[in-house]
Amino acid sequence: MLDRVLDTIDSRKDQSLALLKDFLRIPSVSTKPENANDVKHCAEWLADQIRQTGLSATVYPTDGHPIVVAKNSHQPGRPTVLMYGHYDVQPPEPLDLWTTPAFEPDVRKDENGFDAVYARGAVDDKGQVWCHVEAIRAFAGNLPVNVTMLIEGEEECGSGHLDAFVEQHADLLKADVCVISDTNQFARGLPAITYGLRGLCYMEVFVTGPDHDLHSGMYGGAVPNPANVLCQLIASLHDTDGRVTIPGFYDDVVPLSQEERDQWKKLPLTEEQFAAGVGIPFGNGEVGFTSIERKWARPTLDVNGLTSGYQGVGAKTVIASKASAKVSMRLVPKQDPAKIRAAFEKHLRDRCPKNVKIEFVGHGLSPGVLTPVESPAVQLAREALEIGFGVKPTIMREGGSIPVVGLIKKVLGIDTLLVGFGLPDDRVHSPNEKFDLDALHKGTRTAALLYAKLASL
Amino acid sequence: MLDRVLDTIDSRKDQSLALLKDFLRIPSVSTKPENANDVKHCAEWLADQIRQTGLSATVYPTDGHPIVVAKNSHQPGRPTVLMYGHYDVQPPEPLDLWTTPAFEPDVRKDENGFDAVYARGAVDDKGQVWCHVEAIRAFAGNLPVNVTMLIEGEEECGSGHLDAFVEQHADLLKADVCVISDTNQFARGLPAITYGLRGLCYMEVFVTGPDHDLHSGMYGGAVPNPANVLCQLIASLHDTDGRVTIPGFYDDVVPLSQEERDQWKKLPLTEEQFAAGVGIPFGNGEVGFTSIERKWARPTLDVNGLTSGYQGVGAKTVIASKASAKVSMRLVPKQDPAKIRAAFEKHLRDRCPKNVKIEFVGHGLSPGVLTPVESPAVQLAREALEIGFGVKPTIMREGGSIPVVGLIKKVLGIDTLLVGFGLPDDRVHSPNEKFDLDALHKGTRTAALLYAKLASL
Predict the structure, then answer these.
(1) Name one Pfam family in it (chains A, B) (predicted).
(2) Which terminus of chain B has fewer CB atoms gathered within 10 Å of its CB, N or C?
(3) DSSP E strands, A160-211
């Protein structure tokens, strides 16, 4: 039966890609109010597609964007698998850097000569959601497990309504294990299980000085300049060893185990390859850690945006009334995101000159997570990956955040298998995002194998 | 005869304002390529208006924006006065902060109940140029001096073609003294002669790290973040005493004289009033100097714009490939602008991490200037101001820059009388720029008195 499922998947590569392209055309940018109707349309399109695989699907409205829940016919005495994904996407800006438009999916060879589909959302997360939709379709109504799909529309803007939804519908969503495909292979052809994610604390900082923009000749040097102040505040967040200076920032951090450090040193990614992959001569960060250790297991702080004053062509000699920065901190177990947010605000308030105003807006809080590597579910997932890709999977952690993993553990009491098919060069969150077509195919096979294997849970 | 001139001016207040509004409607934004035709049209409109006052006027094309030169009939044996002004204006952004549109002049009462005309360029510099046009008109062809008007269209973007023009036309422009109205009264009703201006060195700094935008989860903490690096570089430009840290920055600075410090302490502007005027609890800057001393006589550094990463609504977890800042330094005699630029670049290059790229673009270089206060021309100007405004003028320096003053001294060998009619709350370079209507009237009278008085030079 499984052979027939895999054969079906192999025979449907073109149709799968065609439908994925339809999925990608919808500009479901959840963080922008002007795309709200596109996001809603995308949810309805997806629910309709899922119904055609044999599941029933419902589009649940929320006070934000809708949530899609789909199920096969649940039978007692067999495991229930909850699949989570998101149909919303990051904003496409900056538009002028896309080779083909962000919402006009284009199939072409990537820089290494491999076929890929290029579009915003190609890998994050629509392409990977599509692996599961096609995998389920291939069972032709005969899945060996109970499946519940939970696909939301606000992941890229903080999942503001998901917590309440999962709490209110805990019974609808109950399961034995969760599966999420929104992470990476270690490298092309080296599939992976991800057992750790970083958390996130995303803040926006606003500094206001004079109550209107000033002429920098008439006032320069005699008034506080919010742009200069903001730079000083941001600069104060790191020391020369690349450590974040916020008091207490590292207090609750679970240190890397020597076992992890030894294993990761054997991974097939040198420091030179890492730096070359992003076009820099060498990486840098917290002293005493490798690039992999820094991005998988250490807490960090990055500016995501800077805004002040005149940004057009040429010169304007202005002291702008305001300056702002978007700053995100990636957290590891067991840092407490709310404590980190409070410490961040206090550190900056303490250093802020008394003749300017500082204000904060929070855009997202989630803790780092570690899932147990030795569990039966992880073992079955490793088998599914080995067959699906023909290679033993790498066991890795991930620098990014998937807050829903913590939510699902807390409310539904289950662990999550992070089995993703993206590649490090997919340009997630960047112009020219892509999804490797071989990953689409092998990912669909692997998802099907996973549903089959998990019947033995 | 002078009474008849002043009576004419008093009787033409409405007509003068109506024509000034026509002048203000033309969006002559010199720094924006898309307004190039508006700038040209403005030059032609102005030349036409000047011809109607009895002068001949020529619009000289340059490789940039045109320059207007106008003259009455020059007779030997009497002084020649060169009047300089500019018909171009600053960009209006941010547009959403204007009460009425920047290029739709509106007459209304300001926050203190005084009538003013609101538009971009109202005081800087069209309103003040208009004082001179109307003053000249009121002589009905019988000016007692030779007058040459030199009105350019690139002052707000660095006067890139003015130096060559003045050098090539030194004979056409030769004069005994120059007059510029592009500065302020000390306060409303307290007219001023300005005897010192700061210079300018305007730089743009670009930091590039990874060769494309990155996902801040996947890479955060392991790669150099250009936005964080830029903040560190900008922060390194000041110490905690408010001094600029660039090596050699203060080497050539002519210190304030004790006489100046004593005089300025008597000016009717307290630290509380200064701070209240810009909506801050108190000013700050270089330790050991008052607000007036800082802005008139000390060199300073300000950020005019910050740009990096995502600047839209909400959150985007990106490490942007690039970050940039616009930075201007105000200079005092005898700092050498080219030395300052080189020292600025070296300071930042030395501190720039070796795994990011840093690049610089220059947008303007001019030295600080001091003009002799005891000269006959300044004495005559003081008399003109005292009659025109009914109050003895304040003798002050100015924090802003008018690079042409140094050029005129260097090429034409003459000093400049800086007799301006703006007010500190005119919001120069800011939204809701205005020109006080009483200043328009008294400024026109004063300009006429100045041409009359300078006949005795």
Answers:
(1) Peptidase_M20
(2) N
(3) 177-180, 192-197, 199-208
